[in-house]
Each structure stands twice: as structure tokens, then as C-alpha cells.
Amino acid sequence: QQQLVESGGGLVQPGESLRLSCTASGLILDYYAIHWFRQAPGKEREGVSCLGGRRSYRDYTDSVKGRFTSSRRNAENTAYLQINNLKTEDTGVYLCAAKYLGSCASSDFDYWGQGTRVIVGS
Questions:
Q1: What average pLDDT score do residues 7-21 get?
Q2: Residue 71 DSSP class
Q3: How far apart are CA 20 and CA 108, in angstroms?
Q4: Residue 56: per-residue pLDDT
């Protein structure tokens, strides 16, 4: 079964860090562009990060630049989103999506994860 599974979310205080994981099974993640999305309470889902296919091109939405870093570890078939200096506005459900041979311009994804929740604040 081909799927993406996110993990690593939790309740944290402002200024702390988290590393979210997106682990693939049944597909070789190296061939896929990986996009991270955030669904904040009461807001539309927004793309926060993308990691291109084997070229490893990265891009981020302006509000997270300098704090978010996306990466992948092919040996683990996993993509990561490192989030530093968390802010209350980072609260939301984070989802990863994958597009075969895609790029940061991709919008029709082949796979979606179920999401992992991040809550920033007391």
C-alpha cells in the first residue's frame, strides 16, 4: 500500500523547535517533489514549503522563511520539515503531499498524508 505518514507534531512553547517527518511506504520518495501544507484553525490550507525532486530545489512561503527547512533522507524514505522559533501563528495541522517527478510548481499531488498537529502556546 502506497502512503505517506506524518509524525512529530505536538504541543510546544513559542520559541521552541520541532521536526516533522513524512515517511513514505510503497513508493520511492526520492523521485517525488514533497510539499508541506499547513491548515490553521478557521483558515484555508496554505503551502509552506516545497522540496523538488532529485534536484533538491527548495522554496518557502514568506512567513516561514528563515525558520522552516525542508529536507529528505533517501535511506529512510522520509522527508522532514524542521521548524525553529515556533510562533503561535504556526499552530495547525501540517500535511505532506508528494508528486511524482514534480516540482515546486506542482499542484495535482499523487499522495497526501493524514497530517500531524502542531500547537504553539500554553
A1: 97
A2: E
A3: 22
A4: 65
Closest listed residue to residue 39, CA positions, set 97, 122, 115: 115
Contacts (Cβ under 8 Å, ≥6 apart) of 29: 72, 74, 77, 78, 79, 98
DSSP code of 27? S
Taking a C-beta distance cutoff of 8 angstroms, is the pair 18, 83 a contact? yes
Q: How far apart, in whole angstroms, are the C-alpha atoms of residue 55 and residue 72?
A: 12
Q: Where are the beta strands (DSSP E) in 26-107?
A: 32-39, 46-51, 58-60, 68-73, 78-83, 92-100
pLDDT, tens digit (0-9, with 9 covering 90-100), for 53-86: 765 688 898 989 999 999 999 999 999 999 999 9
35, 80, 71, 86 alpha-carbon torsion, rounded to 10°: 90
- Which residues, other chains included, contact 118 with Cβ-Cβ below 8 Å and sequence gap of 6+? 9, 10, 12, 18, 20, 83, 86, 90, 91, 92, 93, 94
Q: Are 30 and 54 spatial neighbours (Cβ–Cβ below 8 Å)?
A: yes
